[in-house]
Amino acid sequence: MRITGGSMSVRNGYPAMRRLGALGREMLLQAGAQHLGVPVSELTTQPGQVVHVASGRTVNYGDLAHVAMDLPVPGPASVKLRDPSQFRWIGKSVKRLDIYEKSTGKVDYAIDVRVDGMLHAAVQHAPRLGMTVGSIRNEEQVRQMKGVHSVHRLPGAVAVVAERWWHARRGVEALLVNWVEAEPGAASDIRVMPADFSTEEFRKHLATVSGKEENAETRGDVTRGLKNAHTIVEATYFSQYVNHGQLEPPSALARYNPDGTLDVWLPNQAPDMFRADMARRTGMDAEKITIHSPLLGGFFGRHFLYDHGSPYPQAIALAKATGRPIKLIWTREEEFLRDALRPMAAVRFRAGLDETGRPVALDVVSATEGATEGLGTKRGKDLDPTALEGLTNKAYDIPDRRIAQLFVRNPATLGYWRSVGNSMNDFLYETFLDELADKGHQDPYELRLHLLRDNRRLTTLLKAVADLSGGWKRGPFTAADGSRRARGIGMASPFGSEAAAIAEVSLENGRVRVHEVWVLIFTEN
Question: Residues of the chain whose pLDDT is less than 50?
Answer without folding.
Answer: none
